[in-house]
């Protein structure tokens, strides 16, 4: 695992989280319980704090970078798809960020909101809970009602990545140099 302190700030990673050896975690970063961090993720807390809540997953190639003006807060049971770029101020619990989405400076994703694949959330955009936003720039698309299949689908993703934590801890082996 590549975990670095910088400027006297050292990441704090729960023992129950899994961070792949090819992910890179730098500085003022706090990672909660049963978080899954895939290969080629970069979480760089060199300009301010970043917190990642319990049971959240960061999929391959996700980039999270801090800003000196705020704490970057990623909540619990958040699903962050491959190659998403997170310069947001907050992603609340149970939100989902689609693959390749770009969350620009100070944007805020509300609880249970879904940001579509490849969406661009402009600086300081604030979303509302349990709504879908998509496109460039990202715009409101529809609500996510209690019975919406999207809600169950996000839950399935979250659970599958929680299972990955144990599977990777117990069975991931390098088979070739
Ligand atoms: C945004 C999203 C939630 C929309 O899903 P949906 O509500 O089922 O919408 P549909 O697929 O029925 O598409 C509805 C319309 O939105 C458009 N659309 C769908 N996804 C879009 C996106 N990411 N960006 C822009 N437009 C999109 C469709 O082309 C369609 O347009 P039309 O009505 O003009 O034909 C979904 O496409 C998405 O991006 N999910 C994220 C999944 C993900 O990345 N998960 C991480 C897994 S690793």
By CATH's scheme, which homologous superfamily applies? Hexapeptide repeat proteins
CATH first level = Mainly Beta
- Strand content range: 25-35%
Percent range for helical residues?
10-25%
Tell me what the structure shows.
This protein is mainly β and 177 residues long. The protein has a single domain (2-171), classed as UDP N-Acetylglucosamine Acyltransferase, domain 1, CATH 2.160.10.10. Helix content is 13%, strand content 34%. The chain has one helix and 19 strands. It has one helix spanning 149-171, and strands at 2-4, 12-13, 18-19, 24-31, 36-37, 42-52, 57-58, 63-65, 72-74, 79-80, 85-86, 90-91, 96-97, 102-103, 108-109, 114-115, 120-121, 131-134, 139-143. Strands 1, 2, 4, 6, 8, 9, 11, 12, 14, 15 and 17 form an eleven-stranded parallel β-sheet that branches. An eight-stranded mixed β-sheet has the order 3-5-7-10-13-16-18-19. The longest helix is centred in the last third of the chain and has 23 residues, at 149-171. The radius of gyration is 15 Å and the shape is globular. The site of coenzyme A has 16 residues, from strand 18 and helix 1.
């Amino acid at each position: 695992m590549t975990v670095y302190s910088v400027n006297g700030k050292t990441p704090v990673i729960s023992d129950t989280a899994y961070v792949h050896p090819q992910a890179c975690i730098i500085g003022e970063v706090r990672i909660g319980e049963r978080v899954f961090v895939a290969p080629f993720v970069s979480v760089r807390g060199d300009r301010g704090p970043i917190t990642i809540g319990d049971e959240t997953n960061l999929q391959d190639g996700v980039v999270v970078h801090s800003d000196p003006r705020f704490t970057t807060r990623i909540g619990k049971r958040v699903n962050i798809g491959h190659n998403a770029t997170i310069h947001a101020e907050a992603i609340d619990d149970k939100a989902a960020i689609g693959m390749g989405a770009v969350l620009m400076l100070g944007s805020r994703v509300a609880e249970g909101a879904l940001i579509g694949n490849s969406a661009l959330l402009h600086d300081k955009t604030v979303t509302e809970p349990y709504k879908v936003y998509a496109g460039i720039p990202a715009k409101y698309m529809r609500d996510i009602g209690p019975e919406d299949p999207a809600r169950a689908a996000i839950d399935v993703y979250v659970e599958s990545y929680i299972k990955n934590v144990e599977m990777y801890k117990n069975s991931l082996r390098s088979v070739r140099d």
